[in-house]
Amino acid sequence: MTDFLRARGLSCIRQDRVLFQALDLELSPGQLLQIQGKNGAGKSSLLRLLAGLSTPDDGEILFQGQPLAVQAEHYAASLCYIGHHSGIHEQLTAMENIAFWRAAYQLPYSDSMQLLGSLGLAGLEDVPCRMLSAGQQRRVSLARLWLTKAPLWILDEPFTALDQQAIQRLQQCFHQHLAAEGAIIVTTHQALSQDFPSLRTMELAYRW
Ligand SMILES: Nc1ncnc2c1ncn2[C@@H]1O[C@H](COP(=O)(O)OP(=O)(O)OP(=O)(O)O)[C@@H](O)[C@H]1O
């Protein structure tokens, strides 16, 4: 499928600073795009634009050939966005968070206990998330990736706080998603340790 996700002439201004301008971007099914850049370069701002959570100062973003604004509901159903923050309900347990996502995003049934076990959270399923470590909270947050059917994933620093084993597990999950014709945009400060044949990188320059 061509024209899966395309951005044309994007500009983003924050606090009178031009983070980027005239930025073009294209993503096809099966592709992984890694956005790189120094702290403050505008990576999260770009991801938020691409997720439809904020509006560019100039340019447009098309999903399957149509502007995001005319298909907000379809785009939301096609997207799994996980931001900088974990996005979990800290008062709820891991099991309750999964039940919440399943209801909110109308996800099909799957075995939550087994999923959490495979993410190294066995025995912690019923602990309120506020009592979990940073890496464990991140694992709960990323559990969404094993549940969602959305073809487009936009992930802001998903490896933060994860140990090596969890990083490898997450990259295996990327492979499966890409093999199933999914697409991923990710920001990371470190190089991906596994080989991704479809990987492209984009560097955002820090501008004063
Ligand atoms: N909503 C906002 N209002 C005002 N300024 C903002 C807003 N969002 C981001 N900024 C500013 O835009 C700049 C880029 O922020 P952004 O979070 O996109 O950078 P980043 O490349 O993701 O950085 P990091 O690697 O530190 O996560 C920063 O200087 C930040 O202060």
UniProtKB/TrEMBL annotation:
Domain ABC transporter: 5-205
UniProt xrefs under SMART domains: AAA
Keywords, ordered alphabetically: ATP-binding, Cytochrome c-type biogenesis, Membrane, Nucleotide-binding, Translocase, Transport
Top-level taxon in the UniProt lineage: Bacteria
Alphabetized Pfam families for the sequence: ABC_tran (PF00005)
Keyword ATP-binding: yes
PANTHER family hit by this protein: ABC TRANSPORTER I FAMILY MEMBER 1
Descriptive protein name: Cytochrome c biogenesis heme-transporting ATPase CcmA
Organism the protein comes from: Alkalimonas mucilaginosa
Lineage: Bacteria, Pseudomonadati, Pseudomonadota, Gammaproteobacteria, Alkalimonas
